[in-house]
Write the C-alpha coordinates for this entry.
Amino acid sequence: MANENSATEPALRIKDIYKSFGTKQVHKGVSFDLKKGEILGLFGGSGTGKSVVLRSIIGLEHPDKGEIIFENKNLVELSEKELFEVRTKIGYVFQNGALFDSLTVEENLAYPLKAHSNLSDEETHTKVNHMLELVDMKGSNLLLPNELSGGMQKRAGLARAIILEPKIILFDEPTAGLDPVNTERLLNNILEFKKKGMTGIFVTHDIPAAFKICDRIAILYEGKIELILTPDEMKASSDPLVKSFTTGAHIR
Protein backbone atom coordinates (compact mmCIF):
# COMPACT_ATOMS: atom_id res chain seq x y z
CA MET A 1 0.00 0.00 0.00
CA ALA A 2 1.17 3.54 -0.71
CA ASN A 3 1.98 5.59 2.34
CA GLU A 4 -0.25 8.49 3.33
CA ASN A 5 2.19 11.03 1.91
CA SER A 6 2.43 9.40 -1.52
CA ALA A 7 -0.20 11.67 -3.03
CA THR A 8 1.89 14.72 -2.22
CA GLU A 9 5.29 13.27 -3.09
CA PRO A 10 6.64 14.82 -6.29
CA ALA A 11 7.01 12.70 -9.39
CA LEU A 12 10.56 14.04 -9.66
CA ARG A 13 12.75 16.20 -7.44
CA ILE A 14 15.77 18.16 -8.66
CA LYS A 15 17.95 19.18 -5.70
CA ASP A 16 20.80 21.68 -5.96
CA ILE A 17 22.22 20.58 -9.33
CA TYR A 18 25.55 22.03 -10.45
CA LYS A 19 26.99 21.50 -13.92
CA SER A 20 29.94 23.00 -15.75
CA PHE A 21 31.33 22.48 -19.23
CA GLY A 22 34.97 23.41 -19.03
CA THR A 23 35.13 26.91 -17.55
CA LYS A 24 31.46 27.64 -18.27
CA GLN A 25 29.25 27.02 -15.24
CA VAL A 26 25.73 26.34 -16.54
CA HIS A 27 23.88 25.19 -13.42
CA LYS A 28 24.62 26.80 -10.06
CA GLY A 29 22.16 25.03 -7.78
CA VAL A 30 19.09 24.19 -9.87
CA SER A 31 16.23 22.94 -7.68
CA PHE A 32 12.54 22.26 -8.36
CA ASP A 33 9.84 19.64 -7.85
CA LEU A 34 7.71 18.15 -10.62
CA LYS A 35 4.25 17.32 -9.29
CA LYS A 36 2.41 14.19 -10.36
CA GLY A 37 -0.04 14.91 -13.17
CA GLU A 38 1.36 18.33 -14.08
CA ILE A 39 3.29 19.62 -17.05
CA LEU A 40 5.96 22.03 -15.86
CA GLY A 41 7.31 24.51 -18.38
CA LEU A 42 10.99 25.42 -18.31
CA PHE A 43 11.97 28.80 -19.71
CA GLY A 44 15.42 30.31 -20.05
CA GLY A 45 17.52 32.27 -22.51
CA SER A 46 19.80 30.54 -24.99
CA GLY A 47 22.66 28.74 -23.28
CA THR A 48 21.07 28.67 -19.83
CA GLY A 49 21.03 24.87 -19.74
CA LYS A 50 17.35 24.02 -20.17
CA SER A 51 18.05 20.95 -22.30
CA VAL A 52 20.94 20.02 -19.99
CA VAL A 53 18.38 19.62 -17.20
CA LEU A 54 16.45 17.11 -19.29
CA ARG A 55 19.56 15.28 -20.42
CA SER A 56 20.75 15.05 -16.82
CA ILE A 57 17.48 13.44 -15.75
CA ILE A 58 17.94 10.50 -18.14
CA GLY A 59 21.69 10.25 -17.69
CA LEU A 60 22.90 11.71 -20.99
CA GLU A 61 24.68 14.38 -18.93
CA HIS A 62 26.15 13.88 -15.47
CA PRO A 63 25.76 16.72 -12.93
CA ASP A 64 28.91 17.74 -11.05
CA LYS A 65 26.90 17.56 -7.83
CA GLY A 66 23.32 17.52 -6.61
CA GLU A 67 20.51 14.98 -6.66
CA ILE A 68 17.77 13.94 -9.06
CA ILE A 69 15.25 11.90 -7.07
CA PHE A 70 12.84 9.60 -8.91
CA GLU A 71 11.03 6.72 -7.21
CA ASN A 72 13.21 7.18 -4.11
CA LYS A 73 16.42 6.79 -6.12
CA ASN A 74 19.10 9.38 -6.85
CA LEU A 75 19.50 9.05 -10.62
CA VAL A 76 22.87 10.82 -10.48
CA GLU A 77 24.35 7.80 -8.68
CA LEU A 78 22.96 5.08 -10.96
CA SER A 79 25.03 2.89 -13.26
CA GLU A 80 24.36 2.81 -17.01
CA LYS A 81 22.57 -0.52 -16.55
CA GLU A 82 20.30 0.96 -13.88
CA LEU A 83 19.63 4.01 -16.05
CA PHE A 84 18.52 1.68 -18.87
CA GLU A 85 15.64 0.62 -16.61
CA VAL A 86 14.83 4.22 -15.65
CA ARG A 87 14.52 5.15 -19.34
CA THR A 88 11.51 2.84 -19.63
CA LYS A 89 9.76 5.10 -17.11
CA ILE A 90 10.95 8.51 -18.34
CA GLY A 91 10.29 9.24 -22.01
CA TYR A 92 12.16 11.88 -24.02
CA VAL A 93 10.74 13.81 -26.97
CA PHE A 94 13.78 15.15 -28.81
CA GLN A 95 13.75 18.49 -30.59
CA ASN A 96 14.13 16.95 -34.05
CA GLY A 97 12.09 13.81 -33.45
CA ALA A 98 15.32 11.74 -33.44
CA LEU A 99 13.86 8.96 -35.57
CA PHE A 100 16.16 6.29 -36.98
CA ASP A 101 16.53 7.25 -40.66
CA SER A 102 16.80 3.69 -41.96
CA LEU A 103 13.75 2.37 -40.08
CA THR A 104 10.11 2.78 -41.03
CA VAL A 105 7.69 4.60 -38.76
CA GLU A 106 6.44 1.25 -37.46
CA GLU A 107 9.99 0.01 -36.81
CA ASN A 108 10.84 3.27 -35.00
CA LEU A 109 7.85 2.97 -32.69
CA ALA A 110 8.42 -0.75 -32.17
CA TYR A 111 12.07 -0.25 -31.21
CA PRO A 112 11.51 0.58 -27.50
CA LEU A 113 8.92 -2.19 -27.23
CA LYS A 114 11.38 -4.77 -28.56
CA ALA A 115 14.11 -3.46 -26.25
CA HIS A 116 12.07 -3.19 -23.07
CA SER A 117 9.04 -5.51 -23.31
CA ASN A 118 8.14 -9.11 -24.06
CA LEU A 119 5.27 -8.34 -26.43
CA SER A 120 4.76 -10.62 -29.41
CA ASP A 121 5.12 -9.21 -32.93
CA GLU A 122 1.33 -9.12 -33.23
CA GLU A 123 0.93 -7.30 -29.91
CA THR A 124 3.69 -4.86 -30.89
CA HIS A 125 1.99 -4.15 -34.24
CA THR A 126 -1.34 -3.56 -32.47
CA LYS A 127 0.24 -1.16 -29.99
CA VAL A 128 2.07 0.74 -32.76
CA ASN A 129 -1.18 1.16 -34.67
CA HIS A 130 -2.93 2.43 -31.56
CA MET A 131 -0.21 5.03 -30.94
CA LEU A 132 -0.26 6.18 -34.55
CA GLU A 133 -4.01 6.76 -34.32
CA LEU A 134 -3.52 8.82 -31.17
CA VAL A 135 -1.11 11.18 -32.97
CA ASP A 136 -3.16 11.42 -36.18
CA MET A 137 -0.77 9.25 -38.22
CA LYS A 138 -2.88 6.21 -38.98
CA GLY A 139 -1.58 4.32 -42.01
CA SER A 140 1.92 5.82 -41.98
CA ASN A 141 3.53 2.56 -40.73
CA LEU A 142 5.69 1.88 -43.77
CA LEU A 143 6.91 5.42 -44.41
CA LEU A 144 10.54 6.34 -43.76
CA PRO A 145 11.40 9.46 -41.74
CA ASN A 146 12.53 11.35 -44.88
CA GLU A 147 9.03 10.83 -46.31
CA LEU A 148 7.41 12.59 -43.34
CA SER A 149 6.77 16.29 -42.88
CA GLY A 150 8.46 18.04 -39.96
CA GLY A 151 5.20 17.92 -38.02
CA MET A 152 4.76 14.21 -38.65
CA GLN A 153 8.34 13.52 -37.53
CA LYS A 154 7.64 15.33 -34.26
CA ARG A 155 4.38 13.47 -33.72
CA ALA A 156 6.06 10.14 -34.49
CA GLY A 157 8.74 11.06 -31.95
CA LEU A 158 6.01 11.83 -29.42
CA ALA A 159 4.34 8.48 -30.08
CA ARG A 160 7.64 6.62 -29.67
CA ALA A 161 8.38 8.42 -26.38
CA ILE A 162 4.97 7.51 -24.97
CA ILE A 163 4.60 3.96 -26.28
CA LEU A 164 6.08 2.38 -23.12
CA GLU A 165 3.60 4.40 -21.02
CA PRO A 166 6.32 6.16 -19.01
CA LYS A 167 5.58 7.99 -15.77
CA ILE A 168 7.25 11.21 -16.97
CA ILE A 169 7.72 12.72 -20.44
CA LEU A 170 10.52 15.21 -21.15
CA PHE A 171 9.81 17.58 -24.06
CA ASP A 172 12.84 19.33 -25.58
CA GLU A 173 11.63 22.24 -27.73
CA PRO A 174 8.86 20.10 -29.31
CA THR A 175 7.38 22.92 -31.41
CA ALA A 176 10.70 24.32 -32.71
CA GLY A 177 10.66 24.70 -36.49
CA LEU A 178 6.97 23.91 -36.90
CA ASP A 179 4.48 26.12 -38.70
CA PRO A 180 1.40 27.29 -36.76
CA VAL A 181 -0.87 24.50 -38.10
CA ASN A 182 1.54 21.72 -37.16
CA THR A 183 2.30 23.38 -33.82
CA GLU A 184 -1.41 23.41 -33.00
CA ARG A 185 -1.78 19.78 -34.03
CA LEU A 186 1.15 18.64 -31.89
CA LEU A 187 -0.06 20.64 -28.88
CA ASN A 188 -3.53 19.16 -29.20
CA ASN A 189 -1.97 15.67 -29.22
CA ILE A 190 -0.05 16.53 -26.04
CA LEU A 191 -3.19 17.93 -24.40
CA GLU A 192 -5.03 14.68 -25.10
CA PHE A 193 -2.29 12.75 -23.29
CA LYS A 194 -2.36 15.32 -20.49
CA LYS A 195 -6.07 14.63 -19.95
CA LYS A 196 -5.09 11.02 -19.24
CA GLY A 197 -2.73 12.11 -16.46
CA MET A 198 0.56 12.75 -18.24
CA THR A 199 3.35 14.22 -16.10
CA GLY A 200 6.07 16.11 -17.95
CA ILE A 201 8.64 18.87 -18.29
CA PHE A 202 8.19 21.13 -21.30
CA VAL A 203 11.34 23.00 -22.37
CA THR A 204 10.48 25.69 -24.88
CA HIS A 205 10.96 29.22 -26.21
CA ASP A 206 7.36 29.10 -27.48
CA ILE A 207 5.49 31.21 -24.91
CA PRO A 208 1.96 30.67 -26.33
CA ALA A 209 2.56 26.89 -26.46
CA ALA A 210 3.72 26.87 -22.83
CA PHE A 211 0.70 28.90 -21.73
CA LYS A 212 -1.57 26.39 -23.46
CA ILE A 213 0.16 23.24 -22.16
CA CYS A 214 1.75 24.00 -18.80
CA ASP A 215 0.32 24.09 -15.28
CA ARG A 216 3.35 25.97 -13.92
CA ILE A 217 6.39 27.54 -15.54
CA ALA A 218 9.88 27.66 -14.05
CA ILE A 219 12.36 30.32 -15.19
CA LEU A 220 16.01 29.29 -15.32
CA TYR A 221 18.20 32.37 -14.94
CA GLU A 222 21.90 32.71 -14.10
CA GLY A 223 22.21 29.05 -13.20
CA LYS A 224 19.22 28.73 -10.87
CA ILE A 225 15.44 28.50 -10.94
CA GLU A 226 14.53 32.12 -10.25
CA LEU A 227 10.72 31.82 -10.24
CA ILE A 228 7.97 29.24 -10.66
CA LEU A 229 4.59 30.70 -11.63
CA THR A 230 1.32 29.60 -13.21
CA PRO A 231 0.62 30.92 -16.72
CA ASP A 232 -1.96 33.34 -15.28
CA GLU A 233 0.56 34.60 -12.72
CA MET A 234 3.11 35.10 -15.49
CA LYS A 235 0.66 37.04 -17.62
CA ALA A 236 -0.17 39.34 -14.70
CA SER A 237 3.39 39.73 -13.42
CA SER A 238 5.27 43.02 -13.58
CA ASP A 239 8.58 41.33 -12.68
CA PRO A 240 11.20 42.43 -15.25
CA LEU A 241 12.49 38.87 -15.69
CA VAL A 242 9.00 37.50 -16.33
CA LYS A 243 8.18 40.35 -18.71
CA SER A 244 11.39 39.66 -20.62
CA PHE A 245 9.82 36.35 -21.66
CA THR A 246 6.22 37.39 -22.10
CA THR A 247 7.28 40.33 -24.29
CA GLY A 248 9.96 38.35 -26.12
CA ALA A 249 12.86 40.58 -25.05
CA HIS A 250 14.91 37.99 -23.15
CA ILE A 251 17.31 39.13 -20.46
CA ARG A 252 20.67 37.58 -21.31
Summary: Residues 180-195 form the longest helix (16 residues). Confidence is low (pLDDT under 50) at residues 1-5. The longest strand covers residues 24-34.
